[in-house]
């Protein structure tokens, strides 16, 4: 019996339906069980990476929880606190996960499913949008809030990212403060976040220098388009910097259609 079947059977026992749950009802049953404070057990293992030991908990649907910089006991305690579920040690999948993490940290493509079914729809939307930020690029929390249709929910976006159960696989380290400062990181703090961004080729020294001057956007004198600092390379002779969208608009520049910075009226 897989996790989905076990989940359906468990909810059937809790709610006492008149007939066994059918397969097409399992997603709804999962949501009802989550609301009841019950979730199925996970299996977990540990892999060794350049960032140290990383513990990974998975369901049949994919990786559900990932944590580094902790002991096995601390990992299990955080898992219990986050999802109120148990986990059993199972190293059978360790070689595949080890290879996947090695490839990810080396900048190679990885096909590794994640299970976000234990999260709220809002959290899922936030993490899905964070997953669209390319390697070596950064976006502010406000960008995610706008992109998912909740422009005023910047703080809630920050909370959802701070509670990201699968950092690295969903790259919340690529989301920075509105001031341009890199901000905190749930898996090891700012130092690890900085290390990851540098590993991806992000020019943090330049970004932080601009942030310290209050500069938020870059523009090209040839295209008259402004965008986020990591969106594209602009040669120094064509580069112009702006403090905000209003300044860029007043200078005759328009928002980039790729990175979608805010317009002056936003």
Key descriptive features of the protein:
alpha/beta, Double Stranded RNA Binding Domain, Arc Repressor Mutant, subunit A, four-stranded mixed beta sheet, 10 helices
Write up what this structure looks like:
The protein is of the alpha/beta class and 266 residues long. It folds into four domains: 1-37, no CATH class; 41-118, Double Stranded RNA Binding Domain (2-Layer Sandwich); 121-209, Winged helix-like DNA-binding domain superfamily/Winged helix DNA-binding domain (Arc Repressor Mutant, subunit A); 215-255, DNA Methylphosphotriester Repair Domain (3-Layer(aba) Sandwich). The chain is 37% helix and 16% strand. It has ten helices and ten strands. It has helices spanning 3-15, 26-35, 72-83, 94-105, 121-130, 141-147, 154-162, 190-199, 204-212, 245-250, and strands at 42-49, 52-59, 62-68, 87-89, 139-140, 175-176, 217-220, 225-227, 239-242, 254-255. The strands form three sheets. The protein has a four-stranded mixed beta sheet with strand order 3-2-1-4. Residues 1-31 have low confidence and may be disordered.
Strand content: 15-25%
Order the strands across the largest sheet as they lie in space: 3-2-1-4
The helix/strand series, from N terminus to C terminus, equals: HHEEEHEHHEHHEHHEEEHE
**Envelope shape:** elongated
Q: What does the largest sheet look like?
A: 4 strands, mixed
Give the name of the CATH superfamily of the largest domain: Winged helix-like DNA-binding domain superfamily/Winged helix DNA-binding domain
- How many structural units, i.e. domains? 4
Structural class: alpha/beta
Question: Which CATH class of the largest domain?
Answer: Mainly Alpha
CATH topology heading of the largest domain:
Arc Repressor Mutant, subunit A
The CATH architecture classification of the largest domain is Orthogonal Bundle
Q: Which ranges are low-confidence, i.e. pLDDT below 50, for 5 or more consecutive residues?
A: 1-31
Helix content: 25-40%
Cα(first) to Cα(last) distance is 51 Å
Could you give the count of β-strands?
A: 10
| Rounded mean pLDDT score | 86
Alpha plus pi helix count = 10
* Rg result: 21 Å
């Amino acid at each position: 019996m897989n996790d989905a079947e076990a989940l359906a059977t468990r909810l059937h026992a809790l709610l006492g339906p008149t007939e066994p749950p059918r397969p097409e009802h399992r997603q709804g049953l999962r949501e009802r069980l989550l609301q009841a404070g019950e979730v199925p057990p996970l299996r977990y293992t540990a892999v060794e990476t350049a960032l140290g030991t990383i513990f990974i908990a998975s369901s049949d649907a994919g990786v559900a929880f990932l944590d580094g910089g902790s002991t096995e006991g601390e990992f299990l305690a955080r898992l219990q606190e986050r999802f109120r579920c148990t986990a059993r040690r199972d190293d059978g999948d360790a070689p595949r996960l080890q290879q996947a993490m090695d490839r990810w940290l080396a900048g190679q493509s990885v096909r590794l499913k994640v299970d976000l079914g234990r999260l709220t729809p809002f959290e899922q939307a936030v993490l899905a949008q964070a997953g669209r930020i390319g390697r070596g690029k950064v976006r502010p929390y406000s960008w995610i809030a706008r992109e998912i249709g909740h422009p005023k929910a910047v703080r809630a976006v920050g909370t959802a990212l701070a509670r990201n159960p699968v950092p690295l696989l969903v790259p919340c380290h690529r989301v920075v403060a509105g001031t341009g400062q890199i901000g905190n990181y749930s898996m090891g703090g700012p130092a690890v976040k900085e290390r990851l961004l540098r590993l991806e080729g992000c020019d943090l020294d330049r970004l932080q220098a601009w942030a310290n001057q209050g500069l938020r956007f870059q523009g090209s004198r040839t295209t008259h388009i402004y965008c986020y600092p990591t969106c594209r390379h602009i040669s120094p002779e064509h580069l112009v910097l702006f403090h905000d969208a209003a300044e860029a608009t007043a200078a005759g520049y328009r928002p980039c259609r790729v990175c979608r910075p805010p317009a002056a009226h936003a």
